[in-house]
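Worked example 2:
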Amino acid sequence: MPKKEFSEEAVPDFDRAPSVIAIAGKLSFFVEEAAARARKRLGGDDVEVLRFDDDASPGAVAEALLNRSLFSPKRLVEIDVSRLLGTDSPGELAEQALEFWNRKTPAGRREAFRRMRRVLSAVDVAVEGDPGEAASALARKIRRKDLAEPIAEILRELPEERGSTGATLAATIRLLLERENDGLVALLTASDPPAGAELLAAVAKAGLLLSVRIGDDRREIEPALRRLATALAKEREVRIEGEAVTRLLFRTDFDPALFATELDKLLEWAGAGGRISGDDVGEQVADEASEDFYHFLDFVAKRDAGEALKRLERMFSRREVRAGKRSYDPEDDGWPQIFLGMLTGEIRRMLLVRARLDEKGAPAFEPGMRWDTYKARVAPFLDEPMAPFGKSPFGGNAEAYPVFRAAVGAVRFTPEELARALSRAADVDVKVKNSAPPLETFTAYVGDLIAGA
């Protein structure tokens, strides 16, 4: 499907615009953000702007597209057409609708209705008469007869739509595509459209299709996802701390879709008037089937022996261990040496950071320093070349989160404590290789490290 990547420059002014412009992307927040920028570029004092969201009656939208404004020479009609496009997986979307419905919140109801409308459109089922019959027909089509009753519950509450159907609205949009811009432009938005959606293909051919995509560069991804967190938290009336967003970014490896999913769960967990801290992210975004090595390091850095030793025990149980994108099997004979290498690597990094921060003229660093402040004040200093080597011990990567995490821990330890821990690592390695129980051996080692013994 031919399309262009979205940018403000890719959106023409109203007079040069085709009759239909579509903006599509994976996440609705960024699609709506792009649509706002396009609306600003297309609008003007002589342009009447009408906006319809996913809840709008197809009849009202079709009427707005077929009629001209009585008050302005030009009309811009913005429409969310996600439900007209269907979905790649109606069954999965129906399950999502039920999950939102079971939250019993206004936001959950809105999302449940939004997804259920897309399912109805995808399987071509209309709610006419008894909602129970429509639910049974829908459940048969998605091959989930067990969902008929809970789907019926949603359909009974689904606001009734009057006027033209979704099919009629799609036909109206296709009619516009056959015409030149005669004073009316339709601005379509579509979130998470299915692959090969015919309506979008038609727009790409006769109109203008713009794709909203977050690039692979973390410098671009981070501010975008921070905007998402701030906006959704405000909408849900939840206070989310900057450190919580930072932890969530790294815990989801800056993956936009995963970040959005986990953010939604956190906001639902906090509830209106609630608060999300960095520690909450660590607790709530954990995979119950695995343990996170970096989460363990967070507690070591805080000198929290209770939590660190609890995590250590989990890492030597049968559960999988994650470290970023990597995973390890604790039942593998090589795991104790792998774990010791990773832990001593962190201690060595902490010692390097502590040594640099103890130098004369080094910027002050506190454990509670914000990530943005660290990047602006501390990271540039750590990246400065050191005599006589002529380069930084961090390879110019002091902005990386592992160095920031090491700094948080480093200032809680003395150089002598960290050096003692490194010097004992060789003895620990020998003990483990000579069949000493790994968990008991590492419990003593980590306990001594945190205690400063």
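The mean pLDDT is 85. The chain has 19 helices and eleven strands.
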